[in-house]
Design a protein that fits this description.
mainly alpha, Four Helix Bundle (Hemerythrin (Met), subunit A), about 85% helix, about 0% strand
Length: about 210
């Protein structure tokens, strides 16, 4: 048995590199991109959780339930949300960079194909990968823009209550609190849809990685 194993190892080592199981550059990048998408999804889940806390804090604040404590929690959760959003922006750029590198490597790897049908088949796959990611990227930008608007409103509420905090000021600001809560609820739904698309894209990218 030992001699057989040695012979098999020797035979495998004698194979040219092209004869061994290995990942190309594009497939290795695909693995990294799938992992990065997974991290992005985790961050978005954390952002949803922080936003849900904020909506609860604003509701309690509007109802006059422990106003001072509700405002303190609102400030803490808003700070957490802003930190998470900063990480999300960095992670989105990482995913975009990996997408560009993957497509470039993939295109280079198949550029030497001579059979026209093989070229067409492969180019169609690359074009689909580009188009699918473009849809996701558009969604990322749209949700990101809405998130910027919502975060600005929450920051304005924070500034308002920091300079004027009383039952009367809370009552005066009630319409803006409701506006923020309604926008927050819509944002949670939009992020759910976005995360579904990230999950689908991650499965496609991971499938091409061979891992």
């Amino acid at each position: 048995m030992k001699n057989t194993l040695i012979a098999l190892v020797a035979f495998w080592m004698a194979l040219p590199v092209s004869g061994r199981a290995q990942n190309s550059e594009s497939l290795n990048i695909a693995t990294d991109q799938a992992l990065s998408m997974n991290k992005l999804d985790d961050l978005m889940g954390r952002a949803q959780k922080a936003l849900s806390y904020i909506m609860t804090n604003l509701g309690e604040l509007a109802d006059g339930n422990n106003a001072n404590d509700s405002f303190d929690k609102f400030k803490d959760n808003l700070e957490d949300l802003q930190d998470i959003r900063s990480d999300i922006k960095d992670r989105v750029e990482k995913v975009r960079d990996l997408q560009g590198r993957r497509i470039a490597a993939w295109t280079k790897e198949v550029s030497g194909m001579t059979d026209k049908d093989m070229r067409k088949m492969t180019n169609d796959q690359i074009d689909k990968a580009k188009a699918d990611f473009d849809v996701l990227d558009k969604q990322l930008r749209e949700v990101g823009g809405d998130a910027n608007d919502l975060t600005s409103l929450l920051q304005d509420l924070n500034k308002y209550f920091a300079s004027s905090f009383s039952p009367d000021s809370i009552k005066t600001c009630a319409p803006m609190i409701e506006k923020a809560r309604a926008s927050g609820q819509e944002m949670v739904k939009d992020v759910d849809t976005l995360r579904d698309n990230i999950y689908k894209q991650k499965k496609v990218v991971k499938g091409t990685s061979g891992n």
